[in-house]
Amino acid sequence: MIVVPDDFPSVFEGSEAHQRAKRLGEVRVFTERGADQEAELIRRIGDAPAAINIRAHARFSEGVFQACPRLKMVSVWGTGTDNFDLNAAGMRGVTICNTPGINAFAVAEHALTLMLTVARRVVALDEEMRKGRWPRELLTQCLGKTLGVFGMGAIGGRLATIARGIGMNVLGWSALGDEARIRKTGARPASKEEILAQADVISLHVRLSTETRNFIGRKELAMMKPTAIIVNTGRGALVDREALLAALRDRKIMGAGLDVFHQEPLAPDDPILTLPNVVLSPHNAGQTPEVIRDGLLAAVANIENFRQGKPTNLVVSPGR
């Protein structure tokens, strides 16, 4: 049996991947919200030996793994695993796989779009014109400017490539210190401090972990240029929320393009909604038909390969 406990909003049910999964046996899909509650997630998983995780609001905690002893494998649709207690998974003998790289082009395009939208003040100008005004203020040109990319995996590397295509200089930082990978994109390796001080735009593509939580805080924001833009399509918690709000409100940086947040969906009274120098999107940078199709099929393929004793895209592999 395969269970999909968190298909809300639904992308899996009725898809090509759903049909492919059915060839492996019984498939249970839950399309209503509720998997963000531990007891409900446990109930939905039940005695299934395999699960496909669709949404990050379903938190696979130690309690979940303990309460579901027959669970042996979880395949994640996407790359992020910050909603998993990976140590508990390993201790309980649960293999965790993800689907890296599939959304790279889509997310990189979105990061570039957020950057340009903030730089060219597209949203604010559109709003002004709809009010009958004809604003003539100066805008920011990206040609010749410096982009700093934190995290040079598939998404960060793709963004570096396309940013160079519009004439930007690119600085890259890798958590693994992989300078060869950075140079392969045409970017120049740089330290975190160099990027913060020199970049006109900073884009975040590092994984969220204990080490990277609040990767950009008050100190880091103070190092940035007052004309700088920050783009985040990674995870909201990579940036200290209060520090970012203060920097934007006080114009310590020029603006931000955000696809991810500390609380999702945003509360109606979230102060980020009141700031005119922020462009927002609802954590949908990778939501294209192609990414959804290919990612879901890859998630099912992970289960097929696991059953054949040849697990792919391993994040946690007990016993290895």
Précis, in short:
The chain has 320 residues and is α/β, with parallel strands linked by helices.
List keywords for this structure.
alpha/beta, Rossmann fold, seven-stranded parallel beta sheet, six-stranded mixed beta sheet, 15% strand
What can you see in these coordinates?
- The chain has 320 residues and is an alpha/beta fold.
- The protein has 2 domains: 2-102 and 288-316, Rossmann fold, CATH 3.40.50; 104-280, NAD(P)-binding Rossmann-like Domain (Rossmann fold, 3-Layer(aba) Sandwich), CATH 3.40.50.720.
- 35% of the residues lie in helices and 15% in strands.
- The strands form 2 sheets. It has a 7-stranded parallel β-sheet with strand order 8-7-6-9-10-11-12, sandwiched between helices. A 6-stranded mixed β-sheet has the order 2-1-3-4-5-13.
- Helix 1 (16-22) packs parallel to helix 12 and helix 5 (104-119) packs across helix 7 (154-165).
- The protein starts with a strand and ends with a strand.
Helix content: 25-40%
Number of domains: 2
Shape: globular
**Uncertain parts:** none
**Percent range for β-strand residues:** 5-15%
Using DSSP, what is the number of strands? 13
Content-based structural category: alpha/beta
Classified in CATH, the superfamily of the largest domain is NAD(P)-binding Rossmann-like Domain
| Biggest beta sheet attributes | 7 strands, parallel
- Rounded to an integer, what's the Rg over CA atoms? 21 Å
Biggest sheet strand line-up: 8-7-6-9-10-11-12
| Overall CATH class of the largest domain | Alpha Beta
Give the mean pLDDT.
Answer: 96
Query: What is the H/E string?
Result: EHEHEHEHEHHEHEHEHEHEHEEHE
By DSSP (H or I, 4+ residues per run), the number of helices equals 12
What CATH architecture label of the largest domain applies?
3-Layer(aba) Sandwich
* Distance between the amino and carboxyl termini: 25 Å
CATH topology of the largest domain: Rossmann fold
